[in-house]
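dumping this here so i dont lose it again. seq + smiles for inosine
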Amino acid sequence: MQDELNAATRDRIRRAPKVVLHDHLDGGVRPETVVELAGETGYHKLPTTDAGELGEWFVNAADSGSLERYLETFGHTVGVMQSADALARVAAECAEDLAADGVVYAEVRYAPELFLESGLTLPEVVEAVQEGFREGERRTAASGRRIRMGTLLCAMRQNARSGEIAELAVRYRDEGVLGFDIAGPEAGFPPTRNLDTFEYLRRQNAHFTIHAGEAFGLPSIWEAIQRCGAERLGHGVRIVDDITVSDSGSVRLGRLASYVRDLRIPLEMCPTSNVQTGAAPSISEHPIRLLRSLYFRVTVNTDNRLMGGTCMSREFTELVDAFGYTLDDLQWFTVNAMKSAFLPFDQRLALINDVIKPGYAALRAERLFTQVAAENPA
Ligand SMILES: O=c1[nH]cnc2c1ncn2[C@@H]1O[C@H](CO)[C@@H](O)[C@H]1O
Ligand SMILES: [Zn+2]
């Protein structure tokens, strides 16, 4: 009976309240929208103008085994998002799509510096996206669902604009920008290139996460935490390199892995994306299983819904199929994510107690009543 109540079926996964902390705006555009915006803006470089084919093209091209080649696919989404209207549309649709998948709280990130090709300024980019997220929240509410959107601004590791982007994040902190991130190719661009930026953010009491331990190993995670002061790790999968599991099954954590676990540093894990970039060999061999079993602060995320052909429900489904996770596990990941959000503490607590826990409880209880109904047919 307990198993029955706790079973994570496809339908329940979709309806369960979910939280995503690591989702890129320019990695989650609807293929139809890419095609339409390309037509409107005269962007001629798309490999096809058939939306179905384009969606498949993104997934296949991103399935490259290399982060650098994975990132090349963003040229097409970034290319069609160069106007305020395009940015607002993509942001509104992002909120709607996440909400339709049962996401109740999302932190979505993007790099403002990539959207200046047609003359927008950095503040204009941020304002357009914020307006789009607000519109998406309104449309979602009108459809009877609820989603709360937060924004993270990324600086690109290969560019030298992180100071400016951090200032932008601080300037818009009361308008829904909750934090900062460093994204882009990891190898050759250590986060310590931006030490001044991180010091500035700490002086401002601002939040930041860093993509680390995805395409590069432990030194990158160590730098992100100990030299830069990252509160969360984007991916962080390579932390397993500091964990030894003996043949008998006993586990030894190195000092960095212990530190990450002891301080409850959130790992923004993105299973599908990690397989696509070669950071993990397959879902069934993904380090998330070991890290979850050791009670690291693991969260589950989409990274790029377009490039991964994915959504939160699909990420959860893959994990349920691979590891036999139940609703209890999915609730644990979701509460972990909500605890780790850059939203103020009182609001995080309210979302956990008033939305997430009751949502999972209702799913378990439903099964209880169908059972009773089946035993006592009218
Ligand atoms: O998994 C990732 N690792 C590193 N960088 C990424 C990943 N996914 C997307 N981006 C980069 O972040 C930028 C801002 O959204 C994207 O344009 C892409 O270049
Ligand atoms: Zn990412």
